[in-house]
Amino acid sequence: MFVPVKSKKVYEHVIEQIQNMVMTGVLKKGDKLPSERELVDQLGVSRASIREAIRALEMIGLIESRQGEGNFIGGDINSSFFEPLSVMFMLNGGKPEEILELRRVIELESVALAAENITNKQSDELIGLMDRFRQAGEEAERAAIDKAVHDKIAEIGGNSLILILLHTISSLLETFIRDARGMILRDEANHEQLLTQHQKICDAVIAKDAQEAVKAMSEHLETINMTMKRMHSEQTTER
After folding, report:
1. Which of 103-117, 127-141, 157-171 has the lowest mean pLDDT?
2. What letters, b where the CB count within 10 A reaches 16 and e where it falls short, cover 158-187?
3. How many CB atoms lie within 10 A of CB 110?
């Protein structure tokens, strides 16, 4: 009936304490953490454990490390849901493909809701984003607008929990597959393909055609999935 109790690694306890302080409001967005030396003294753990915890929390966006200034509670935290989901995902050895699978489930429903609920003002906002996408020249700008389009569609859908989930997945996605995203946007042919795919998604949403919007979003996410698989295959071959 009972199972053996497993002890946590020291750095996991550090993560848990910082996470709980954020969840309870003791630490707020923008607050500076004590220095590594102070954390070592206060928590009674090694500096290596502190650094490992900080590194993990930085990867998921909970902490921002600023050169010469220290560590701060991140500015991208939109809800108390973000931290536990991200921390649990990392500690349980989550894989990039799992994020993509969840993203597919959420975004297909999100785009259908957007097609049902979009207003004239929101249509204009999507058109404006796509105009910026077509004019963008730098990879970083393209990536930012790409994300903005997906966020706007989720916002139009009107389900705040879906928006929060997509934000969380996006943060994790950028951490785990930054190289894959860069691979997609570096190739000019892929850029044109992504641009066309986003245009089809937005056109369907604006036309209030939920079925076509879901189809277009599915094709777009499959492109990302195939790029991930190709990148993984290339890395495996190099080894």
Report:
1. 157-171
2. ebeebbbbbbbbbbbbebbbeebbebbbee
3. 26
Please calculate the CA angle 229-230-236 and round it to the nearest 5 degrees.
Answer: 90
Gap between the Cα atoms of 73 and 76, Å rounded:
9
Q: Report the C-alpha gap between 217 and 151 in whole angstroms.
A: 13
**Reported confidence tier of residue 80, pLDDT bands at 50, 70, 90:** very low
Determine the 3-state secondary structure of 31 from DSSP: coil
Among 62, 76, 66, which Cα is nearest to 27's? 62
DSSP 3-state of 77: coil
Instruction: Give the residue-averaged pLDDT of 152-160.
Output: 93
Burial of 141 (0-12, 13-18, 19+ CB in 10 A): middle
Measure the CA–CA gap between 150 and 163, rounded to whole angstroms. 9
H/E stretch holding 71 reads strand 70-73
Q: 171 falls in which pLDDT band (50, 70, 90)?
A: low
28-56: per-residue pLDDT in tens? 888 999 999 999 999 999 999 899 989 88
Residue 160 CA to its chain's centroid (Å): 16
The single-letter DSSP state of residue 64 is E
